[in-house]
């Protein structure tokens, strides 16, 4: 245990405390100091993420406030560099810093970042004056060494570059802040540019805040989701999955203006260096420098939110089995598009999920159940055990009976309900027969058998009667199967059952009228109608009235001559006999006859 060790000042870097120790004890050789502090002469004097901290803590003593975790959290840049890393990485870095710290900068991704660590320790001239006034000596502040801090978070003035370039001090030496290395005429890290100052000052304060109060750890997919949802809220998403990158880049650039030019590796000739801006709102797969996270967060914080059609959360849970039912406990809402509607998916931590949709008219639809979650199965078992009816259970669970039955089936829970209107339990199955014989056959309800011969006879008579009615009608109507079936209320029925109705089929053969017979009968009726004026009509008059063509002149002439010679213009009785009958059969009838012949062969 060291006999003396200096007390750290507010915001002081561990490197600075160790440097003051070396100066105070007038340590002659840096190797000797390293041995005193860490037990090894070859430990490197690291500014940001020092290692061998367990050994240091053992020598300085936890009683002096140098517990290992306290050193890491309060005196190193660990909280800044791991602010957006998953818990596993934070733990690994912490363990490495306690030990030898091998590959520390590689593992944190620091080595891969193009944003280099400051080449020299930085200081604020005004802070230096304050330190000397308050404590009698200057020291190196933690927040002044962050790559995203160009202005003093406290005084808002540009930081100055000390003469303490890391490469010149040696890897195993600690150099304290002093007027000698922190010269009055040293170069500021940036020239004052009033437009940029506001943004850079805010960035400096946010960076310092990361040291004091780092955010909760999130793994990369969670981080992606956080940024996506925030981008959606400020209207920078084209769809739930797609960022409007063009608009985002343009508005980001216009927001920060010239401030971006001062920051390390933010812009290059092509735009955003390495495409970091587009990448940070895509799927996170690896570490991104805290500077980029901070810039994005500041931009998003300052952007007005576009009001969501679903309102601002949190939203109520609708799970009737949860004790928080009706309370606004749903923090996150997912959205997607479906057939022109925006659908909001409300998922509660209890597992209950419902959706609401916003149509093109912007009106928010009613909640619709989607998923119950793990509370359903035990409750279902309980209500079944208690003998509740389906209706009662549905009401208690806030589900319609059909959905409840579906959920029970998907959970493979046997339930005694059916979807019959009463929802009553099914009749219990009959007890098993003791001798193992098969159960008696269930009685089946028989419809009365059809008396086909009687039906056939009746139908044939009705067809004959209906055909006469049709023939008597004016203007004439064709006697067809379709017309007869329609009038008998047996549409599409008779011919299909022709094999069972021989009398009916015979009657149809006798009765049906083919197109040419019908045309002839109709033309005869037209001639008679036209002749009622007392003059025999001309051929063209008949043709036009009957909708015939010149191809039917022979027919028209024959009928006109019949009307003249017989001097009796009236409807002739329909043709009878075998030939006429065959011609009169409809296509359907012909088909039936052919089928009948096939069967009889
Ligand atoms: Zn300052
Ligand atoms: Zn819930």
3D structure, described in words:
There is one protein chain. The protein has 601 residues and is an alpha+beta fold. Among the domains are: 181 residues, no CATH class; 85 residues, no CATH class; 57 residues, no CATH class; 35 residues. The strands form four sheets. It has a four-stranded antiparallel β-sheet, with no helix packed on it. Strands 1-2 form a two-stranded antiparallel ribbon. β8 and β9 form a beta hairpin. The longest helix has 21 residues. It is elongated, with a radius of gyration of 48 Å. It starts with 13 loop residues before the first helix and ends with a helix. The C terminus is likely disordered. Bound molecules: zinc ion (2 copies).
Characteristics:
single chain; 601 residues; alpha+beta; 26 helices; disordered C terminus; binds zinc ion; TnsD_C; TniQ
What is the topological layout?
Layout: H1 14-24, H2 30-38, H3 53-60, H4 68-75, H5 78-81, H6 87-98, H7 104-107, E1 120-123, H8 125-135, E2 160-165, H9 166-169, H10 194-212, H11 220-233, H12 245-256, H13 259-262, E3 267-268, E4 271-272, H14 276-280, H15 290-302, E5 315-316, E6 328-330, E7 333-338, E8 341-347, E9 353-358, E10 368-371, H16 376-385, H17 390-397, H18 401-410, H19 452-472, H20 481-488, H21 502-511, H22 515-531, H23 539-546, H24 553-566, H25 578-584, H26 587-600
Antiparallel strand pairs: 1-2, 3-4, 5-6, 7-8, 8-9, 9-10
The structure holds zinc ion (2 copies).
Count of helical stretches? 26
Would you tell me the overall average pLDDT?
A: 83
What's the total number of strands?
10
- Report helical residue fraction: 40-55%
Largest sheet properties:
4 strands, antiparallel
Bound molecules: zinc ion
User: Strands of the biggest beta sheet: in what spatial order?
Assistant: 7-8-9-10
Shape: elongated
Task: Please state the structural category.
Answer: alpha+beta
Spatial separation of the terminal alpha carbons: 118 Å
Give the strand content. Answer: 5-15%
Radius of gyration from the alpha-carbon trace, in angstroms: 48 Å
Low-confidence stretches: 427-434, 436-447, 569-601
InterPro entries: TniQ, TnsD_C
Pfam families: TniQ, TnsD
């Amino acid at each position: 245990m060291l006999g003396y060790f200096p007390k750290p000042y507010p915001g002081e870097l561990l490197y600075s405390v160790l440097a003051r120790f070396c100066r105070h004890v007038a340590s002659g050789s840096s190797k000797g100091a390293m041995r005193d502090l860490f037990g090894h002469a070859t430990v490197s004097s690291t500014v940001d993420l020092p290692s061998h901290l367990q050994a240091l803590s053992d020598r300085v003593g936890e009683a002096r406030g140098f517990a290992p975790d306290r050193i890491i959290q309060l005196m190193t840049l660990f909280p800044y560099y791991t602010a957006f890393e998953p818990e596993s990485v934070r733990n690994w870095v912490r363990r490495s810093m306690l030990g030898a710290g091998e590959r520390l900068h590689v593992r944190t991704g620091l080595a891969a970042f193009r944003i280099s660590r400051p080449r020299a320790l930085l200081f604020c001239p005004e802070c230096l004056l304050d330190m000397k006034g308050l404590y009698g000596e200057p020291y190196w502040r933690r927040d002044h060494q962050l790559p995203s801090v160009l202005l003093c978070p406290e005084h808002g003035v540009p930081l100055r570059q000390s003469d303490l370039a890391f490469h010149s001090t040696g890897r195993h030496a600690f150099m304290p802040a002093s007027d000698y290395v922190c010269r009055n005429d040293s170069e500021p890290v940036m020239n004052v540019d009033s437009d940029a100052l506001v943004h850079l000052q805010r960035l400096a304060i946010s960076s310092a805040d990361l040291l004091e109060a780092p955010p909760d750890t999130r793994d990369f997919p969670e981080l992606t989701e956080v940024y996506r949802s925030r981008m959606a809220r400020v209207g920078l998403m084209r769809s739930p999955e797609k960022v409007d990158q063009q608009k985002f880049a343009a508005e980001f650039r216009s927001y920060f203006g010239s401030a971006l030019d001062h920051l390390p590796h933010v812009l290059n000739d092509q735009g955003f260096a390495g495409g970091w801006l587009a990448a940070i709102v895509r799927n996170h797969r690896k570490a991104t420098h805290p500077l980029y996270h901070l810039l994005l967060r500041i931009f998003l914080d300052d952007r007005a939110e576009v009001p969501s059609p679903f309102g601002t959360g949190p939203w109520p849970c609708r799970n009737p089995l949860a004790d928080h039912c009706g309370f606004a406990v749903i923090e996150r809402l997912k959205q997607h598009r479906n057939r022109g509607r925006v659908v909001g998916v409300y998922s509660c931590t209890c597992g209950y999920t419902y959706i609401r949709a916003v149509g093109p008219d912007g009106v928010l639809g009613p909640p619709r159940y989607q998923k119950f979650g793990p509370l359903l199965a035990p409750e279902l078992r309980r209500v079944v055990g208690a003998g509740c009816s389906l209706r009662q259970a549905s009401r208690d669970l806030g589900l319609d009976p059909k959905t409840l039955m579906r959920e029970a089936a998907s959970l493979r829970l046997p339930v005694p309900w059916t979807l019959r209107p009463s929802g009553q339990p099914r009749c219990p199955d009959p007890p098993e027969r003791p001798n193992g014989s098969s159960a008696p056959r269930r009685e089946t309800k028989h419809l009365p058998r059809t008396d086909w011969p009687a039906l056939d006879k009746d139908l044939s008579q009705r067809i004959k009667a209906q055909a006469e009615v049709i023939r008597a009608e004016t203007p004439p109507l064709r006697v067809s199967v379709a017309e007869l079936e329609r009038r008998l209320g047996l549409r599409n029925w008779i011919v299909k059952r022709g094999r069972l109705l021989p009398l009916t089929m015979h009657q149809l053969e006798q009765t049906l009228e083919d197109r040419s017979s019908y045309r002839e009968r109709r033309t005869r009726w037209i001639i008679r109608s036209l002749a009622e004026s007392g003059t025999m009509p001309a051929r063209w008059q008949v043709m036009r009235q009957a909708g015939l063509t010149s191809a039917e002149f022979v027919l028209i002439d024959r009928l006109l001559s019949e009307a003249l010679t017989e001097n009796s213009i009236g409807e002739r009785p329909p043709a009878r006999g075998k030939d006429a009958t065959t011609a009169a059969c409809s296509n359907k009838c012909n088909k039936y006859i052919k089928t009948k012949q096939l069967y009889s062969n």
